[in-house]
Every structure is written in C-alpha cells, then in structure tokens.
Amino acid sequence: RKRVFSGIQPSGNLHLGNYLGALKNWVAIQEDYENYFCIVDLHALTVPQDPKVLREKIREVAAIYLAVGLDPEHCTIFRQSRVSEHTELAWLLNCIARFGELSRMTQFKDKSRKEGAESASVGLFDYPVLQAADILLYNAHLVPVGEDQRQHLELTRTLARRFNHLYGETFVVPEIMILETGARVMALDEPEEKMSKSSPRPASYVAILDEPDVIRRKIRRAVTDSGTEIVAAPEKPAITNLLQIYAAMTERKIPDIEAEYAGRGYGDFKKDLAEIVVEGLAPVRERALELLENPAELDELLESGAGRAREAARPNLHTAWARMGLD
Ligand code: TYM
Q1: How far does the centroid of ligand 1 lie from the alpha carbon of residue 146, in Å?
Q2: Where is this motif: 'KMSKS' region (predicted)?
C-alpha cells in the first residue's frame, strides 16, 4: 500500500480552511492508503506559543482528527515531537538544503514580515526542511494539503531528488494532492487574505469547534461584494469564496449552485450556507468535545501512534545515515 503523510500545526483554532483543504480529504482517501497523520507540534514552536495553551491545543487537534472520522485502524495518528527521527532527518536535510532556496519561501517571508527577518526564529526559517523530513522519513507517495503548502511541497521534492542524486536512490519523491475546491478558503472579513489559524480576528474564520450560533453569525456578517448576483467571478472575491465553501461542503458544482440562486439575494444564500456549514460541523464539534472529556484516552492513542510511526521511520533514517557515511 502506498503511504500518505500530512499534518496540522496545533497552533490557534482549526478552521473551515483546514477542514475543507485537508481533513475532509484525508477522511475520503484513508481506506486506500497507509496513512500517517501527524500533529506537527515542533512546527508550532517556530512562533511563540504559551506552553499551557499548546498542551491543550495538541489534544484538541487529536480530538478533531478522530471527530472528523479518521479511523485509527487506517491511520497512524501521532505527535511529531514524540518521534525524534523527524528532527534527526531534518538535520541531514539541512546539510543539503540551501540558504537561498529557503530565503525564497513565501510563507517565511509572510510570517517574518511583521517583525522583520532579523528577529524571526531560525526555526521559522528552517520550517520547510523539517516539513520535508516529516514526509521523506516515511517515503510517503502522496501528501494531501491545501494550496498554501504547494511551495513547501515543491521544496520537499527538490530535496528528495537532490539527496537521491548525491547519495543514491533513497527517498520517494512525493506527489502533491490539492483538491479543486476548498484548497484555498479565504477570510470571511477579507477575501483577499486566506483563512488563517493565526488571525487575531475571530470573525475572519469559522472554527471547527465554533458553536452553531457563532457560525451563523459569522457567515451572516461575512463581507460581500457590490452588486446582487450570486456568481463566482474575479471581481467578486467575497461571493466567490462563499460559493467555493458551499461547493466544497456539499460536493456540488459551482455553476449548479449559481443556477439555484439566480434571482435570489445574498441574504438567502448566506442563510442556506450557514445551515450547510452548521450541519457539517456540528457533529464534529459534539464528538470532539466528548473525546476531550477523556484526555487520558487521547494521550494513549497518540502514544501508541508514535510507537507505530517510529517503527516505520527508523529504518529509513538508518538508510539515510548509511548513504551519507554515518553507518
Ligand atoms: P497548517 O497547520 O497551516 O494547515 C493544515 C492544513 O490545512 C490547510 N489549510 C488550508 N486549506 C484551505 N484553505 C485555507 N485557508 C487553509 N489554511 C490551511 C493547509 O494547506 C494544510 O494542509 N506546514 C503545514 C504543516 C505540515 C505538513 C507537514 C503538512 C508540517 N509538516 C508535512 C503536510 C506534510 C502547515 O502549516 O499546515
């Protein structure tokens, strides 16, 4: 069976973008692959985190993984920090990654813009190399992610090819899997910006764990464009975003939805969209809250997942060592 690897950072609140761009797809494909779904807690440390909050968020992500329907029978669910092979391989890859190529990563440029690259952590700069290690360590064939990860995945492929070229065939060069709809969910209050966990504006995202009434309010207040027509078009980024969310949630085609709402107003459309999102997320929320009442069980799941992940990872790290002359 081919392997799938993907991960989410336990920073901030998981939102509709994470659900539609990643989680929903993971659930859909899980039975066809051997899956490793990681909580990338070391990546979360690349920007400041409050230890107390981080501890809670890690469990929250584990609960959400299960609540959306990931099945531990098909998926190994674990924490990155508990499988030290990730950081060990990252070091080997650090030594073939180039300063120049990391300097060109747009996510680094975006995230370090606020305070300037001078005071960004070295971890933030090195982030994509750890991500490459995550994936290559398992020889994953397929990496299902949202559109914002494309550049990181291209770097992963470059590093795999470079390593293979320098030291002989070692790593699988992974394929990127990005869905057509839902891969780039934009902020509800600013459709030129992507929906983001680190946003200080709660109105910009629908959190997976938001209460139904909060979801309804956020969607009601989502910005719209001038005009009244419900159509996807470049000059209508806000309605286009809402249509994409609608399409991804219902697995319907956008033209189909446009036709249904022809001649109807934004208000009607948003009301229906809110109910669709509530209907999709409410069961996830309820299940996640239930699971969070029993943190010991979640911890156990993560522990046993780490054990299995390590077993898969260890031999590949040893191969990389040997190829580089460290055997
Ligand atoms: P993170 O935690 O930012 O996001 C997790 C997943 O959600 C997707 N995503 C979105 N999809 C659609 N619309 C959005 N607005 C949106 N925001 C986020 C992301 O594309 C991602 O799939 N670097 C990764 C974590 C990571 C990883 C990995 C992923 C670390 N190692 C190895 C894959 C493989 C990240 O920051 O995800």
Answers
A1: 6
A2: 194-198
210 is in an annotated binding site: no
Catalytic residues: 111, 194, 197
**What are the angstrom distances between the C-alpha of 325 and each of 8, 40, 98, 99, 197?**
33, 29, 21, 23, 41
| Whether CATH 3.40.50.620 fits 3-183+295-324 | yes
CA of 56 to the centre of ligand 1 (A): 19
Q: Determine if the pTM surpasses 0.90.
A: yes
Residue extent(s) of CATH 3.40.50.620 domains in the chain: 3-183+295-324
Q: Tell me how far the alpha carbon of residue 241 lies from the centroid of ligand 1, in angstroms.
A: 18
pLDDT per position as a tens digit, 28-68: 999 999 999 999 999 999 999 999 999 999 999 999 999 99
Find how far residue 286's CA is from the centre of its chain: 21
- Pick from 11, 5, 7: nearest CA to 200: 11
* CATH T-level assignment (fold) for domain 202-289: Tyrosyl-Transfer RNA Synthetase (1.10.240)
